[in-house]
Amino acid sequence: MSLPSGFLDEIRSRVSISQVVARKVGWDARKSNPGKGDYWAPCPFHQEKTASFHVDDRKGFYYCFGCHAKGDALSFVRETENVGFMEAVEILAREAGMQMPARDPEAAKRAEARKGLAEVMELAVRFCRMQLSSAAAAPARAYLDRRGMTAETRERFEIGFAPDSRVAMLSFLREKGVPDADIVAAGLAIRPDDGGQPFDRFRGRIMFPIRDARGQAIAFGGRAMDPNAPAKYLNSPETPLFDKGRALYNVGPAREASGKSGALVVAEGYMDVIALAQAGIGHAVAPLGTAVTEEQLRLMWRIADEPVIALDGDRAGLAAALRVIDLALPMLEAGKALRFCLMPQGLDPDDLIRDQGADAMRNLLDAAVPMVDLLWQRETEGRVFDSPERRAALDVRLRQAIAKIPDPGVQAHYREAIRELRAQLFRPVRPERAQAPFARGKGGWRGGKPALPVMPTPAAMQSLLGQAQHNDDGAARIRESAILLACLNHPGVAETVEGDLDTVSFICPDLDGLRRALLQALALHLDTEGYGSPDRTLAEIVRERTGEDPLERLSRIGQVRDNPHIAAGAPAESALAVVREELAKHRAVTGIRTELAEAEEEIGGVADEGLTWRLQQASAARDRSLRAALERGRDEGQDENALKARLQQMIDGQIWLRRKK
Predict the structure, then answer these.
(1) 215 SS3 class
(2) Cβ atoms within 10 Å, residue 461
(3) Cα(506)–Cα(56) distance, rounded to whole angstroms?
(4) How is the beta sheet containing 160-162 ordered, strand by strand?
(5) Where do the Toprim domain residues begin and end (predicted)?
(6) Beta strands at 205-211 and 160-162: parallel, antiparallel or unpaired
(7) What is the DSSP string of 455-466?
(8) Which of 654, 624, 482, 448 has its CA nearest to residue 556?
(9) Residue 234 to residue 370: CA distance in whole angstroms
């Protein structure tokens, strides 16, 4: 049977020749450079000890400098499996997850149409890049400037702009002779269901071209400039060119950069990848608005053996990381792993790099944890294991998860790692008490049954509940930045809450210094200028006293910068409501810190498994207090007093001591 002209190209794009050849050879690590698709091995076609067999993964060919064998993936399968051409095609098609085509003369037409759509996409990329220089794109350029994107970076990533017009791109492509049907098929225009005239899909958006591993433009991602747009980010729809579950943003350049670093970072979005690249971390990719798929994970492993998943430091980011675990477990094999880098709460890589610099990001990536640690956290976090039944249930869940790993060796090492983590949680020993005589006194077990440590176990401290106090630093930075930015944008609000600002103490030292500078500037502002003076704003006085622009510093965090209620043009009542709410939450959190410190002092060095439980109860009490402040609008003092009373009751009751039966 004859094959459509594009069928073999599709197989070659989905299955790398290095993946096919690797089943028969072992790569020479000294000569090979996987990041550049450059592989060397002893030739499988003749006996030799040196690595003279070369595979160029980008071009899809192999060549032996000894016996001069050469060809592509199909010829390699034919020669090594001793099969015919069509059978080799079927083998590779199955590996690529493709159906063998029926005897359909229309298939050739579809393949030709696909090639034409690729040309349409290149025209669209050129159009959008030209539009970024237009007068209509001035707000888009200003936005990119605020985000710190240099002109060189814009050129490197081919950043463009789609005008806020229903037919701007359509008109351009029509002038180039592209029929409307092809524009719609490429995902660049939408044809109404009622059969009306098509219109541009992307309007008033910053445009990010998406290219496949071979560098061919296949889709767009568009970031809306209108804050009221239904979708902040909009991707191209599924087209004959674009399968979002099989593509990764920046995959081609990241693969080349990975050849030098040996690493791969998987971020959440376009701006994260671009910020990482601009900071010198060019080996970064991102899924395209969806959870990571099996095909994307396989593509990552073709680039690097141990990609680092770096997701946003919020509940959604953690949930996404946990979903990757279930996807990856059945695919694990020796030498193919994942590590996880969870960002500080409320920050993404773009925010962190602009706020703390590239070194801070590199340090986080270097500290990424193996997947087994995140699996353990998922199964233990927020749970109490104070009975044999609960511990047995934990064992069952972990066994079921580990059983998904197909490689026996990897599975065995996972069991060993879990045993170590389990021992840390259930059988921690204090060295100074390990040799004490067997006794049970007021302080708990000694000797034969080891006493538990005063401080929480490492596993407990690594959980989100155990980290509640430490995570407050990230949440506190958001709260404190929002309070300060609202006050600087609205001097009247600052005057209203001046007394609260004077008595509160911020957790972040740098922001506490800015709070004091704000109070000093507020007094000077009131004495000399009066509110609303066009000559000297409150922010300008703070800048004169501190030597830096406070608005720029406070706007580095996206959640603060994008809050419409504290922006300069927002109603003062909205800004005041935000400040009062954030101050209430801040007082509750700082109050719980003080109480926890006093609780630890009250414990006096005696603790057992109840310590972990008490930490969980304290964290839950804090969360209830914060929710109450929002949902029921209680007075700040009432919430704080209720929380203190609850903690004092726990202390008075000595919940950490074992009770006699």
Answers:
(1) coil
(2) 15
(3) 57
(4) 160-162, 205-211, 217-224, 233-235
(5) 262-343
(6) antiparallel
(7) SPPHHHHHSTTT
(8) 482
(9) 33
Q: Per-residue pLDDT tens for 574-611?
A: 999 999 999 988 887 777 666 555 555 444 444 444 55
- Helix (H) or strand (E) holding 311, with range, is strand 308-313
Helix (H, G, I), strand (E, B) or coil at 422: helix
The partner residues of 219 in beta bridges, in order of sequence, read 210
- Burial-class residue 227 by CB neighbours within 10 Å (0-12, 13-18, 19+): exposed
The predicted model scores a pTM of 0.57
Measured CA to CA, the distance from residue 385 to residue 318 in angstroms comes to: 23
Cα–chain center distance at 390: 32
Compute the mean pLDDT over every residue in the chain, rounded to the nearest whole number: 80
Asked if residue 557 lies in contact with residue 481, where contact means CB atoms within 8 angstroms, the answer is: yes
Residue 228 burial by Cβ neighbours in a 10 Å radius (0-12, 13-18, 19+): exposed
Structure tokens belonging to residue 406: 């197909």
Evaluate if residue 233 carries a pLDDT over 70: yes
pLDDT of amino acid 460: 40
Token couple for 500: 């609260």
Mode of pairing for the β-strands spanning 308-313 and 265-266: parallel
Torsion 93-94-95-96 (CA) sign: positive
Q: How many CB atoms lie within 10 A of CB 197?
A: 11
**φ, ψ dihedrals at 54, nearest 5°:** -115, 135
Report how far residue 259's alpha carbon sits from residue 383's, in angstroms, rounded to the nearest whole number.
42
Mapping DSSP to helix (H, G, I), strand (E, B) and coil, where does residue 306 land? coil
CA 608 remoteness from chain centre:
36
Show Cβ contacts of residue 513 under 8 Å, excluding neighbours closer than 6 positions: 546
Q: Which parts of 490-635 fold into alpha helices (H)? A: 491-496, 498-503, 509-528, 538-546, 550-554, 558-561, 572-603, 610-631
Contacts of 249 (CB under 8 A, 6+ apart): 208, 210, 221, 270, 273, 285, 286, 287, 288
The CATH class for the domain spanning 244-426 reads alpha beta
What's the CA gap between 139 and 224, in Å, rounded?
Answer: 11
Query: 61: phi > 0 → left, psi -120 to 50 → alpha, else beta; which?
Result: beta
For the chain, the 3-state helix, strand and coil shares in percent, each to the nearest 5, are 55, 10, 35
Q: CA angle, 328 as apex, 221 and 34 as ends, to 5°?
A: 70
7-95 maps to CATH 3.40.630.30:
no
Contact 283, 264 (CB under 8 A): yes
* β-strands 189-190, 199-200 pairing: antiparallel
H or E element in which residue 265 lies: strand 265-266
- Average pLDDT of the segment spanning 479-508: 88
- Between CA 656 and CA 618 the distance in angstroms is 13
- Widest Cα–Cα separation across the chain: 92
Between 25 and 599, name the one with better pLDDT.
25
CB of 159 closer than 8 Å to CB of 144: yes
The tens digit of pLDDT for each residue in 447-470 reads 333 333 333 444 444 443 334 344
Residue 95 CA to residue 91 CA, distance in Å, equals 6
Class of domain 106-235: alpha beta
CA distance 480 to 308: 31
